[in-house]
Amino acid sequence: MKQAILALITLAIVCSFASCEKSEELPPILKENTGKRAYKLPDPRPLNADEAAREAAIKKEYNDNAK
Fold first, then answer.
1. Which residues contact 47 (CB under 8 A, 6 or more apart)?
2. CA dist., res. 9 & res. 64, Å (int)
3. pLDDT tens digits along 36-67
4. What local confidence, expressed as pLDDT, does residue 20 receive?
5. Which residues does 18 contact at the CB level (< 8 Å), separation at least 6?
6. I need a surface site. Which of 7, 13, 36, 54 has the fewest CB within 10 A?
7. CA distance 38 to 28
8. Which whole-number Å values give the CA distances from 52 to 33, 46, 48, in the listed order?
9. Whole-prediction pTM value?
């Protein structure tokens, strides 16, 4: 039993060192100017009855506790 635990611990240590071998702290630098690209948010959709009821309950709870 002790040998199995020791083998698992050794395997975990080896795997942790192997996974950190090629880590990069910073993302790669892109040559293109990404600041000029526009990001469009998805169009909002109306809430269904369950979502509206859940939101109303959260607002009511907040307003009751904020007093």
1. 55
2. 52
3. 677 788 899 999 999 999 999 999 999 999 87
4. 64
5. none
6. 36
7. 20
8. 41, 9, 6
9. 0.38
